[in-house]
Amino acid sequence: MAFHYTCKRFIKRKNEGQRERINTTIQSQIHNELQTREYSDLCDSLVKLDIAISFLKSVGSDPDSLLSDFMCKTLKMENQFPSLKAQQFTKCKNTLSWWITLSLEREKQQANSRYNQNAFESLSDSFKDPLEPDQITAIEEIVNGLSIECIHILLVVTFECIVLRLDVPLTENLTEISLQEILIPYIESSPYEEDTFINESLKGAIEMLPFGDNNENRITTAQIADFWKLINKLLISKQHYMR
């Protein structure tokens, strides 16, 4: 699948050059637009973005210039953005953030049963252990106390940790460490400059996840894919309830 190719190539470049998240307000508007797009549109856009990344690495660009200008004027690409807001506001320094945004929406659609595909296809099965009922209950109690915005941020950060930290060749076994032991260090070593995306209340929620060798409900990194899918379901449920 094109997504796997995009993912593997982009991870190698995630620490190169200036990286900033897309503005939070714009990001929310982009997510709303992407939710109306077809799965195939997201896949096509990721393929085009992968090509653009290759050229950005080779020829460089002004970090503050629009990514759409580079893709349209320099690479002569058409229909490269499935979101008007993303086309208008995403700069070259936001490329990683835009890639994550596109990939996240694609994964959310793929997790939908109608596509009959497994979430995180390229991720090692060692990170796909199922959560136990008591663990699910503990997570629900923590997450239900968060705002919709915080739940969304947790979904994004967990996704980033999976694709940027775990869905790559590893020289160490991370499956047995607790989930918070992988998420907190990821947050503290964010690939973005001056990253203020995570607030203290969300960090506190992550630190409440069951851990410790003597805790029978201890959630490990081996369960991170199932954890992400549960957070996605809880977010959808809360969004429907608030309507």
Task: Lay out the secondary structure.
Layout: H1 2-11, H2 24-34, H3 39-59, H4 67-74, H5 84-89, H6 95-110, H7 133-143, H8 148-166, H9 179-188, H10 200-207, H11 224-242
Helix pairs in contact: 1-3, 3-6, 8-9, 8-11
Structural summary, described in words:
Helix content is 57%, strand content 0%. The protein is mainly α and 243 residues long. It is globular.
From the alpha-carbon coordinates, what is the Rg to the nearest angstrom?
18 Å
Q: Roughly what is the average pLDDT, rounded to an integer?
A: 86
Helix content: 55-70%
Largest sheet: none
Derived from helix and strand composition plus strand pairing, the structural class reads mainly alpha
> What's the shape?
globular
Q: For the terminal residues, how far apart are their CA atoms?
A: 36 Å
Q: Give start-end ranges of low-pLDDT stretches.
A: 1-15
Number of strands: 0
What is the helix/strand order?
HHHHHHHHHHH
Strand coverage percent? under 5%
Helix count?
11
Brief digest:
This protein is mostly helical and 243 residues long. It has helices at 2-11, 24-34, 39-59, 67-74, 84-89, 95-110, 133-143, 148-166, 179-188, 200-207, 224-242.
Entry keywords:
single chain; mainly alpha
